[in-house]
Design a protein that fits this description.
Order of helices and strands: HHHH
Distance between the termini: 12 Å
Largest sheet: none
Number of strands: 0
Helix content: 55-70%
Shape: elongated
Structural class: mainly alpha
Length: about 140
């Protein structure tokens, strides 16, 4: 049996007794987690962009002073530099709270449900889609 005719590896095969609806449900749960991963990435982007902007204010304050605009430099330093983005929070605190309150819980629940219903096997829905869509015998469509 060569790579083109082999079935998917066992970690991507449906365990006995797992129904189509269960595989579909686990696929939907996985997709929701993947979307949450993207949202988390956007949150880190927000965190890094906001932090970078705050650090750039140092140059703005310095240049305003050099240009003789001390009052405006003072205002930027007083009203914007180091400011909370929401009451009581910098962006790192928003990231930490998101992780602790939502993201970590979501990952744990998804992993536990996958363990309970599919022996912990991940991406069964996608693996079955790959198997159904691949061209048997084509070297770029092997199962493994």
């Amino acid at each position: 049996m060569n790579a083109q005719t082999r079935p998917p590896d066992p970690s991507h095969q449906r365990p006995d007794g797992v129904t189509d609806t269960t595989v579909e449900a686990l696929g939907a749960l996985s997709k929701a987690l993947e979307t949450t991963e993207r949202a988390r990435g956007a949150l880190y982007t927000f965190h890094q962009l906001t932090g970078g902007a705050d650090l750039s204010l140092d140059d703005a304050v310095r240049l305003l002073r050099e240009a003789g605009h001390g009052e405006q430099a003072d205002r930027v330093q007083r009203e914007i530099l180091g400011r909370n983005v929401i009451p009581g929070h910098w962006t790192f605190q928003i990231v930490e709270e998101y992780n602790a309150t939502y993201y970590d819980v979501f990952r744990t629940v998804e992993r536990e449900i996958r363990g309970e219903l599919a022996e912990g096997r991940d991406h069964l829905y996608e693996a079955e889609m790959k198997e159904a869509r691949r061209t048997r015998g084509h070297p770029d469509h092997s199962a493994t």
